[in-house]
Every structure is written in structure tokens, then in C-alpha cells.
Amino acid sequence: MCAGGFSSVVLVAGAVAAGGLLTAAAPVGTTDRAPSAWAGGTPAPVGVQAPTDPLDGRDSADAGSAISDTIPVWELAGDPDSDEPVERGAYLARVGNCVTCHTEEDAEETDFMAGGPPVEADFGTFYGTNITPDPDHGIGGWSEGDLARALREGRGPDGTHFYPAFPYTSFTGMSDGDVADLYAFLMEVPPVARENRPHDLPWYMSVRTAVAAWNAFNFREGRFQQDPERDEEWNRGAYLSRAVAHCSECHSSRTTSGGVDEDLRYAGTSEGMDGDPVPNITPHDETGIGGWSERHLTRYLDFGMDPDGDFAGGSMGAVISRGTSYMTDDDRRVLVRYIRSLEPIDHSVD
């Protein structure tokens, strides 16, 4: 995988390292949240689509539906325009790939968010942790502020550093309202008393102070800032890509210290997650996706079919089936618009 540092660790988006549950941070403010508010734009109501896996409930809940006893939380497609925080949070959990990384592919409904599949990296094997509200094995003892600290600083309630396999380097851009909604959803997930599987790492990776050193070189905390020169739709697409869906975490090459190479952000890498190449998604005509139309790209994010009629597999297949396929049509469109606005980078990925 990428040379040096924690590069391959960072590429494993979502495998949170388990931390203690001691001192709670101050609660996040939620005064910026009103129905339909995000970090700068108003998405359209979610569309109802056919399910693609056993935990897909997009045929079970109509757009904008309220939470009820008849709709299990794992069946919620989510709705970013809902009056219900849990509905908005469910949408974020899908688009942000929480479900993808924290739920086994063949999990029963009762194991929803109770731990994810193994991910092989240069430094060992990582496992998505239990993020159900179980007080002993999950995040049941976390406050909203604790979740905010994890997402924005990469630290547990007791200050323990998470490995950058958990993409806090992107989640740091999430708005207060979105953090609050995600917390509301996670606290409604049925608690599962399932122990976290320890990561299989060499001894030197157990020193969490090394992560603090990594952060000093590669991490800058801060909320997403809208570009005043761009319209709301572009800014919505940028927010989804940079903060929530964290596209560049996997679609970028890395420096020797393990951070994103800014000259190759979104330009792909030959040494991606699980050792597989990750494509260049800048609009370069030859080495990127410059030949893909807006229709091709939105269709790909919806159900995984590329312009040649082939379907996504592997990790991207999971991201689509459990993540981007849940996006509203408008959100897919603005995300594609943002990606197509990137500077084309000539970078071949083997």
C-alpha cells in the first residue's frame, strides 16, 4: 500500500479503534439545525428504491416518514429533509458509510452496527467496531459531545487517539446539526452486547502516541467552509464529498508520512485498500473519468453500473449498495457536479 507512515491505515475508511469511555466532552450545540439545513444547501426528499441487500429497507419507509414502532431502525433509508432527527441521522449513516464499515456483510438484522468485516492493511488487520448503544461493548456511554470529539478530533471520551483508519480527517468538517442527527440515530439502534474484535497489529502499532505524531503532520481540525464564489449546489456537493462521504480518503495517493498527497487528491492510487488499485476520479480525459457523462456517474453511484455496462464490485460495490445508492437524486447530482469540477490530474493507476 502507500509508502510510509500510517498511509494504508488511513485508507481503510471507517475501522474505528476502540477507546476508553471515561471523561465526556462538552455537548455539541445544535442551534444551527432546522429541517433541511446542512452545511449550506437544501436537499430534496429521499427517493424510495429497490433493496440490494438484507439490511436494505428502502422499500419499507416512504420518504419523510416519521419513526414508528412498525419501522425497525435498520430498515430506515433516511431522509435529509425530514422533521425527525433520527431520519436525518439514518441518511448520514448511510451516506457516510457507517453501515458499510460497522456491519458485517452477511449480518442478521439484530447485528446491525455491531461490528464490521475485517480489512487487511500493510500494518495488520482492522475491524469496524461495535457502535450500537450497548454500554459495555458499544457507545452507550457516549454523550453527543463524545461523538463529536471522535468525528472531529479522532479521540475517544478519555482522550485516547483513534487510528486514522477512522476518517476523522474528513469527518472533522461535519456541521453541528449533522453530528447531532447522527448521534440521535445511533442512540436508536438496538444495543448489541457483542465484544469488539481486537485489531491484529504488530506491537509498535499499539503505541497511540504515534498517532498524535501522525496528526501533527497530516491532520487539521475544522468545519467545512463554503466557497462564496460557488453556488449552494456546488457547496452541497463539496460538503458531501469532503466531509460526509470522504471520497478522497480512498481515491488519493499518500505522502511518505501517510497523509493525502495534495497534488494527487482524488487522482487515485495503485496501492489502495486491501491492496487493490483505486481509480483516478478527477475529470482527466485519459487517466480519469473525463469520458464519463453526468448521467454515467449518477447511475454508477445509484446502482453501480459503469459506462461499459459492468458493475462495481469489491469495496466500491459495498460503498454503493450500502451508501451512495441511498442518496437522494439531488444529492447524487450535486456530488457528481462537484467531482466533475475538480482540476483534471494526469495520473495513471495500475
| Total DSSP helices | 12
Query: What is the string of SSEs from the N terminus onward?
Result: HHHEEHHHHHHHHH
Q: How many strands appear in the DSSP assignment?
A: 2
Q: Beta fraction of the residues?
A: under 5%
Unreliable runs? 1-66
Mean pLDDT: 81
Total count of domains? 1
User: What does the oligomeric state look like here?
Assistant: single chain
Strands of the widest sheet, in order across it, are 1-2
As a whole number of angstroms, the C-alpha radius of gyration is 19 Å
What level of helicity do the residues show?
25-40%
Globally, the shape reads globular
**What is the makeup of the main sheet?**
2 strands, antiparallel
Structural class: mainly alpha
User: How far from one another are the termini?
Assistant: 13 Å
Describe this structure in words.
This protein is an all-alpha fold. The chain has one domain. Helices cover 30% and strands 2% of the residues. It has 12 helices and 2 strands; from the N terminus they run H-H-H-E-E-H-H-H-H-H-H-H-H-H. The chain has helices spanning 7-11, 85-95, 98-102, 144-153, 168-171, 176-186, 209-218, 232-244, 247-250, 294-303, 314-322, 329-340, and strands spanning 118-121, 124-127. A two-stranded antiparallel ribbon has the order 1-2. A hairpin with a 2-residue loop joins strand 1 and strand 2 (124-127). Helix 2 (85-95) crosses helix 6 and helix 10 (294-303) packs across helix 12 (329-340).
